[in-house]
Design goal:
Number of strands: 2
Distance between the termini: 75 Å
Number of domains: 2
Strand order of the largest sheet: 1-2
Radius of gyration: 31 Å
Largest sheet: 2 strands, parallel
Order of helices and strands: HHEHHEH
Structural class: mainly alpha
Number of helices: 5
Oligomer: single chain
Length: 103
């Protein structure tokens, strides 16, 4: 009778250990999978100062409305600083080549 009780307690201990190991393993793989598949949230630009403060570039067509807006803005304004530091204009042919690289 004592021998049967020891076998039962041993089986219970082994099954409990396996169950806890399975739960820990399942939790670990779930966290690992979620960390690998979820991208960090994108940074939102709230003002033109964010464009100046961070390493962003603005690409516009030469002679485009946006280009003209920044080029003719008042000296010392945020738009003018963005124009002088961050805007890179491209010609139409170069823009088409850039689009082709993404396809």
């Amino acid at each position: 009778m004592i021998l049967v009780a020891r076998r039962a307690s041993t089986k219970l201990l082994v099954m409990t250990t396996f169950a806890l190991t399975y739960v820990v393993f399942a939790f670990y793989t779930a966290v690992l999978t979620s960390e690998m598949t979820v991208l960090p949230p994108p940074f939102t630009i709230k003002s033109l100062e964010d464009v100046i403060d961070y390493d962003y570039q603005i690409m516009v067509h030469d002679g485009d409305f946006v280009y003209q807006h920044f080029a003719t803005s008042d000296a010392g304004s945020v738009e003018r600083r963005v124009f002088e530091q961050k805007i890179r204009y491209i010609q139409e042919r170069q823009f088409d080549e850039l689009e082709m690289r993404f396809y």
